[in-house]
Amino acid sequence: MSGIRSIFHGMKNLPAERLLMPGSPMCAGCGGLLALHEVLDVLGRSTVIVNAAGCMTLLATYPFTPMAGRWLYTAMASAPAGAQGVRDALDIQLAKGRLTTGEDLQVVVLSGDGSAYGMGLSSTSEAIGRGLDFLYLCYDNEGYGNTGQQSSPATPHGAHTATEGGPIGHAGRKKDLFAIWAAHRPAYLATVVGSEPLDLARKIEKAKSLKGPRLIIALAPCPTGWGFEPQESVEIGRLAVRTGVWPLKECIDGVVTHTKNPNPRLPVESYLVRQGRFSHLFVPERNGVALAGIQAEVDRYWDEVATGGAR
Amino acid sequence: MSRCLLTGNAAAAWGARLARVDYVPAFPITPQTEIIETLAGWIERGEMDGRLVMLESEHSMLTAASAAAATGVRVFTATSSQGLMYAMEMIFSAPGNRVPFFLVNVSRGLQTPVTLEADHTDVLAARDSGFLQFHCATCQEVLDGVLLACRLAEDCRVRLPAIVNLDGFHLSFTREPVTVPDAESVARFLPPYDAGMQRFRADMPLSLGAAVLNGGQYSYFRYEQHLASVGALAAYDEIAAEFTETFGRRYEAVESYCSDDADVVFFMIGSFSTKAKDAVDRLREAGQRVGLVRPRLLRPFPEAALRRALAGKKGVAVIDQNLSMGKGGVLHAELASALYGQRDAPPILASFIGGLGGRDIAPEEFYAIAAAVRCACRDGVTPSPRLLFTAGELRETRKLQALAWVSRGRSEGEIQ
Fold first, then answer.
1. Sequence-distant (≥ 6) Cβ neighbours of residue B243 within 8 angstroms
2. Least C-beta-crowded within 10 Å: which of A99, A237, B84, B212?
3. ipTM score here?
4. What is the largest CA-CA distance in chain B?
5. CB A190 within 8 A of CB A207
6. Cβ contact (<8 Å) for A123 and B60?
């Protein structure tokens, strides 16, 4: 990690205080919830979360909330615009002396991939364009998870979803949101996964130290949507990284740096075979062509990284 | 205080400026754009202490407006027509946050077909949202209506967002003499916005827009919004009285013009009601006892005041500049529900649709409407709803249809 020196030297340095309380309507083993609590613990208490429609919308269910702080639900398409309104209103009150700096808040957008990759993309694009000072956390469970895992623009090629259950699974390819957001030249952009808490904490620490648009895409292994047991969630996340399927990286001033280079990479099969959504690639018989295709995609990515290709 | 010629759009901008709004999330759309351009100019030149931010859509604009209001600042925004429709998800979700802000809608007909000119189908689509609605007939009323709506929305008994509506072109681009009140008087009438406990800041946990788990809880919060809106009627009367004390101009929830001794009254909203007033004057000169009743507030719906204003009348001509497809005029149905079964309710409640997409309602049409209602009163039979359209307009349409067919290589003779 370049720039500032991290206080997170090892796992023992990770925050001990938990700002996301246990007890929420999320599914057991939710990879998104894991990432959220790790992010909030680093950000600290002075946050306001502006939420877009998705699984996490049910976190605040009257009169309960697992959060110590503030929460504003908006809509699926426009959470970044809600963040704009909150940030501007805070700045106006700071400028007019109606709010002390001690009362100021960090504005955090929380959305799933359905909003981030699709319906909310225009709103996010413009918020970055305006230089909005906010942190965007996308929990990417690669489908419309809250409604039962229909195909979304983040669904990987070949995965079974509630709307694509045929022999080839999802025909499309996962949209490269990292590249789309990177093209906007935000102050900070990174991918994370809750199963790599040290990497995550260092990135959020860096994002926290910066001003402007800071965007985080967290892979969110989803037991119900992907088809695995809740206790396997952390292991699935680790496999996503070790097979190279989920590259951990960051982007500052247009320069992309990979923060973990899995070498040697495990074969993607070891990640896919653990998930029900890819079971049609293994039973009743092994679909070697499809598996080789997925492996080739991952290999091509890392070959480009090795040869300095801009990713 | 100064008196000058202002367009309806400039009057709306002056209202926002005098209301000392902190924040203006904006997006352009005809015929509203002049409002946000005027505010942007004032802010840029330092004549107004506010912040204007261009959003990428009206949906985002409304999201930002509601979010900023929930964070504790006074928010103003403006839109029209398709913009209001695009924002509709947030129009319905914002009032539930129970944070006040206000929006000027410059009415314009909805597509399809596309038009730039006024009718009220756009703003009536927001009728059931929880926004308060104040409807203006003159440019003066636009400026004053913005101040009244802001005060009403922020009243601790109400705490709901408000729409101030003016007609595109007929008011938005029409200059009228307007008295611009001085800032000190406005500051007395409209104190700084006090969000109280309900704003986002550190050390204060607060969740807005949370889900509920059953219909009972859902009903409770929806009923609360409804009752707050209904309660705004009493609050409005107090505020309007104070407005009269401060500025001298009267804005009762329902305006009655020459209606005390009238047998037949026109019932309508918006700028065309000034045309109706002119028709009333002419008809009275001809010896007919005709009047006008015009609600300024449409939400909350001033039912009691309307019942009083219409008690004992023989007939009412409801002129709707909107069209609920498959039903008819929205105001007609609204008024019927307020009057049905009431003692002294007018026996004849006739429906007329006119003035869609900027179409004029000519004096002769007002006379014909009055005659039709008078006739209905005599016969005791309510006439079928009428869609105003002249033989001249039909001839003009036929000519255009002929052109459209020629361009398709068909002859005029084939037109049915």
1. B144, B147, B148, B151, B189, B249, B251
2. B212
3. 0.96
4. 78
5. yes
6. yes
* Three-state DSSP class for residue B345: coil
Q: Are B13 and B6 in contact (CB under 8 A)?
A: no
* Chain A residues touching residue B213 (CB < 8 angstroms): 61-62
Encode chain B (416 residues) as per-residue pLDDT tens digits: 899 999 999 999 999 999 999 999 999 999 999 999 999 999 999 999 999 999 999 999 999 999 999 999 999 999 999 999 999 999 999 999 999 999 999 999 999 999 999 999 999 999 999 999 999 999 999 999 999 999 999 999 999 999 999 999 999 999 999 999 999 999 999 999 999 887 999 888 899 999 999 999 999 999 999 999 999 999 999 999 999 999 999 999 999 999 999 999 999 999 999 999 999 999 999 999 999 999 999 999 999 999 999 999 999 999 999 999 999 999 999 999 999 999 999 999 999 999 999 999 999 999 999 999 999 999 999 999 999 999 999 999 999 999 998 877 765 555 54
Residue A206 CB neighbour total at 10 angstroms? 20
Number of other CB atoms surrounding residue B381 within 10 Å: 11
On whether the CB atoms of residues B109 and B118 are closer than 8 A, the answer is: yes
Which of A85, A126, A130 has the CB atom closest to B68's CB atom?
Answer: A85
B132-135, strands of its sheet edge to edge: B76-79, B102-107, B162-167, B132-135, B297-299
Please give the angle made by the CA atoms of B364, B368 and B370, to the nearest 5 degrees.
115
- Nearest by CB to A82, from B22, B67, B211: name it: B67
Asked if residues B13 and B43 have their Cβ atoms less than 8 Å apart, the reply is no
CB within 8 Å: B72 and A126: no
Report the alpha-carbon distance of residue B84 to residue B90 in Å, rounded. 10
Entry pTM: 0.96
Residues 179-218 of chain A with CB under 8 A from chain B are none
Select the CATH number that applies to the domain covering A11-306 from these four: 3.40.50.970, 3.30.930.10, 3.40.630.30, 3.40.50.1820: 3.40.50.970
Reply yes or no: is the peptide bond before residue A66 cis, omega within 30 of 0: no
- Buried b / exposed e across A126-155, counting CB within 10 Å, b at 16+? bbbebebbbbbbbbbbbbbbbeebbbbbbb
| DSSP 8-state code for residue B251 | -
Burial class (CB in 10 A: 0-12, 13-18, 19+), A306: exposed
User: For chain A, what is the HEC assignment?
Assistant: CCCCCCCCCCHHHCCCCCCECCCCCCCCCCHHHHHHHHHHHHHCCCEEEEECCCHHHHHCECCECCECCEEEECCCCCHHHHHHHHHHHHHHHHHCCCCCHHHCCEEEEEEEHHHHHHHCHHHHHHHHHCCCCEEEEEEECCCEHHHCCECCCCCCCCCCCCCCCCCCCCCCCCCCHHHHHHCCCCCEEEEEECCCHHHHHHHHHHHHHCCCEEEEEEECCCHHHHHCCHHHHHHHHHHHHHCCCCCCEEEECCEEEECCCCCCCCCCHHHHCCCHHHHHHCCCCCCHHHHHHHHHHHHHHHHHHHCCCCC
Q: Count CA within 13 A, CB hemisphere, residue B239.
A: 26
Which residues does chain A have within 8 Å of residue B56's beta carbon, measured at their own beta carbons? 81, 122-123, 125-126
For chain B, list the domains and their CATH numbers.
2-195+211-247 (3.40.50.970), 254-384 (3.40.50.920)
Give me the count of residues in chain A: 311
Taking an 8 Å cut-off on Cβ atoms, the answer to whether A83 and B65 are in contact is no
